[in-house]
Amino acid sequence: MAEKRSRLTIExxxxxxxxxxxxxxxxxxxxxxxxxxxxSHDAGKFxxxxxxxxxxxxxxxxHSTNQCIFVHVxxxxxxxLEAIVKDFLLILEKMQGMRVGRRTKDEGRMPISVEHYKDxxxxxxxxx
Length: 128
What we know:
The protein is an alpha+beta fold. The protein has helices spanning 27-31, 47-61, 81-97, 114-118, and strands spanning 8-11, 13-16, 19-22, 37-40, 70-72.
């Protein structure tokens, strides 16, 4: 379960009975420069695993070119917040770069930084 984890973990697969579906994303390459992220081969036994398996199965059945990963986020606290958010934003940025197809002129990088999440007096925005 995520509350027992201390780092971001990206799940390599989803399982249902004897069927195992692996993400098509090269996870080793994805996490290579990240400080607080590891690869997990066990998404759990309940909701997380079933959701991930279902999305992977849907992509497989539809022959989708979409990339799919499942990230478990640990409980955030003052000691890990900055590092976890930094890694998560890098994951999103790298996944965005893996998108198949062309971007429209309105699509760009997410204008979010670690500082965006550190300001306790900040009001929520559309970017949240």
